Amino acid sequence: MASILFLRKEKNFMTGAITNGLTKSGFEMVEESVAVNAIQKYKDECTLILLYTDGIEVMEDISSVLVYLKDLCVEENKLLYLIGDPNEFSFICRTIPQASLCDTMARPLDMVRLTDDMNKYTSSDFSQKKNILVVDDDATYLKIVREWLKNEYNVSIVTSAMQAITYMSNNHVDLLLLDYEMPITSGPKVYEMMKSDPEISGIPVMFLTGKNDFDSIVKAMTLKPAGYLLKTINKSDLIKTLKQFFVTQKYGK
């Protein structure tokens, strides 16, 4: 059974109930205080990080912990699950984008649901999902796309070209959904950078754009990406397009 790194400010009745309940369900629990050194020590051994948020807003150095957790979620595709109060979730999401969380549970604790969620997020079926990286400077749009796709795929999000290159250099990516018109470094420039790096040059790219005029489409397609998606695409059409892409990629038809 998978290992879970359980982070909490201090031990109490609730944290004990969580640890005992998940241990009885067969999970290997590593219970530690909310600290960067504890996360660094166990992050590679654990499938998921479970954070009990009670009282963390007043903790010393909590900002550095949240920044580190954000980097793990965005750059290393670590799964982070929150239990606590929605106000604390809002505080955390000032640093860690909500779209980067695998899930949350507001108190009161629902042990049945928590166990089901842990089984879901640590299952081999979940880990075998295709990994999609979405790159866009619009955080709201990223959140929408991740919500749409999270049940079908493992979705990671970044907001800049350099974050995307760094992520792809350190993580397996099956498909890149890339904003065509990003500031500073455009989508075509990112694509060009990828083609010059043998480690990531084989990752298929679909451009995302708000422009649907003929000249823009032709210009994008001359780069020979795997596809070209308008940002106005709806959820069902996006999922259908991605499924068709992966079927064609697998079976060549």
Question: Can you tell me about this structure?
Answer:
It is a single chain. The chain has 253 residues and is an alpha/beta fold. Helices cover 43% and strands 20% of the residues. Strands 2-1-3-4-5 form a 5-stranded parallel β-sheet, with helices on both faces. The chain has a 5-stranded parallel β-sheet with strand order 7-6-8-9-10, with helices on both faces. The longest helix has 17 residues, at 235-251. It is elongated, with a radius of gyration of 20 Å. The relative contact order is 0.09.
Order of helices and strands: EHEHEHEHEHHEHEHEHEHEH
Number of domains: 2
Give the strand line-up of the largest sheet.
Answer: 2-1-3-4-5
Count of DSSP helices? 11
Oligomeric status of the shown chains? single chain
CATH C-level class of the largest domain is Alpha Beta
Secondary structure: number of strands: 10
The low-confidence parts are none
Average pLDDT metric:
87
Task: Provide the helix percentage.
Answer: 40-55%
**What Rg do the Cα atoms give?**
20 Å
CATH architectural designation of the largest domain: 3-Layer(aba) Sandwich
**Classification by helices and strands:** alpha/beta
Distance between the termini: 38 Å
Strand content: 15-25%
CATH level-4 homologous superfamily of the largest domain: Response regulator
What would the principal axes of the Cα set say about the shape?
A: elongated
* Biggest sheet details: 5 strands, parallel
Q: Give me the CATH fold name of the largest domain.
A: Rossmann fold
